[in-house]
Amino acid sequence: MNYNSRELEEERVRRTARKKMISAELEDFLRYLNSPWHIVWRNLLVGLTRGLGAVFGATVVVGLAIWVLKIFVDLPLIGEYAQEFRDRVSEVAEETRYTDDFERTQTILRSIDLRLKEQNELLEILNREQP
């Protein structure tokens, strides 16, 4: 009989602890929802981490692919195909460097800036000519 009362007491303690834990988690969640800057900061960190992870993962996969293909180049039957594939993978890896894209974007932004300055100058001239 003492054993049953002990089990009941332990179950009551577990239920009370579970309720307190759920209450504390709910309180933390509500505090999180009421702090928009905390949400923005956490999402920014998560996004940066995922982006860096994707870049790092892609780099490792491409590097391993080139390394494996380099090993297969020396094999008699598939060496020629492996060499072609390796060259193509290396070419794609070189094409995806973004320095060219950044330079192109910078050139486009400069031309847009020049056009906007020209339009502003024309608008100023038109505004001066009108009485």
Could you give the order of the helices and strands? HHHH
User: Average pLDDT across residues?
Assistant: 81
State the shape: flat
Q: Specify the helix fraction band.
A: over 70%
DSSP strand content: under 5%
Sheet of most strands: none
Radius of gyration from the alpha-carbon trace, in angstroms:
32 Å
> How many individual helices?
4
The SS-based structural class is mainly alpha
Number of strands: 0
Distance between the termini: 105 Å
The parts where pLDDT drops under 50 for at least 5 residues are none
Classify the oligomer.
Answer: single chain
Provide a brief overview of the structure:
By secondary structure, the chain is mainly α.
Secondary structure topology:
Layout lengths: L1 H32 L2 H37 L6 H17 L3 H31 L2
Helix pairs in contact: 2-3
Structural commentary:
It is a single chain. Among the domains are: 53-97; 98-131. The chain is flat. The protein is an all-alpha fold and 131 residues long. Helix 2 runs antiparallel to helix 3 (79-95). Helix content is 89%, strand content 0%.
